[in-house]
Amino acid sequence: MKLEVNGEITQLNEGASLHDLVIKLDIVGQRIAIEVNQEIVPRSQHALHKLNAGDKVEVVRAIGGG
Amino acid sequence: MSEQNDAMVIAGKRYLSRLLVGTGKYKDMQETRLAIEASGAEIVTVAVRRTNIGQNPDEPNLLDIITPDKYTILPNTAGCYTAEDAVRTCRLARELMDGHDLVKLEVLGDQKTLYPNIVETIKATEILVKDGFKVMVYTNDDPIVAKQLEEMGCVAVMPLGSLIGSGLGILNPHNIKLIMEAANVPILVDAGVGTASDAAIAMEMGCEGVLMNTAIAGARNPILMASAMRKAIEAGREAFLAGRMPRKRYASASSPLEGIIG
Predict the structure, then answer these.
(1) Could you say which residues of chain A have pLDDT below 50?
(2) Which of A41, B26, B181, B237 is the most exposed place for a label (fewest CB within 10 A)?
(3) Closest to A65 (Cβ–Cβ): which among B45, B50, B61?
(4) Where exactly are the structural domains of chain A?
């Protein structure tokens, strides 16, 4: 299935969870926050949260800024 | 007065440093870390961005260098031009910081001036305060707006000295004084400081603290400037507490007039 991750079309297997996406992005264990269709999904729920085709996912982290 | 007795209190937490620093525009993580250590800052701002933007795979994560156990991390909403985007960013920041809910709200008006959009700032403040955030708000130097933001529940109000990244110093000290006179929450100058004397002036005026980024990161030697800023903030604070002498139009001799030879 296709979904949008940080503005880019991304391919994932049907039934994939948010944690599967985190593995695919190679950011397991990093300090990140994720929003699916503008709703925050808490880190504790990543493995339980099933993604759907067309979902819009934002994955963010802290970077330098004032 | 000992340092211990002169803490700055924000949202119920005591800080011995009145200098708040950003983490943007540094050459690399090493320079970021050294500059922040030299500044003595306890509150450090960070931006929230997509993981694939500006990421160097070899570079460690900022929060592994500037760690939340050592610093109070203050996520900002830089780059947001609407209340909606700012609120979304704050909610992501809270998740990122495991529920830590102190945020720096800035909703900008345009890219040329990065001047705050007050209408959107007020809208975002209302939502964030209701949602339990502790909001330190970036605003213009309008005393009425500053008071309204305080009354809405912001834990600190942070008027600009001059435009973000301009280094022009505090262009309207009279307004900053009006804001401080009316305030019941800490007033910090955010943006505009160019060099150490600007920071000292803000503190001599009685500001609770100063937030800066480019003045340090944009200096030829950022680590040395961070140290200069630490001293300027401390010197300015002590001068404020000491109370300056009155200005006079004519000279007043420092040495006794009696016993002059001849």
Answers:
(1) none
(2) B181
(3) B45
(4) 2-61
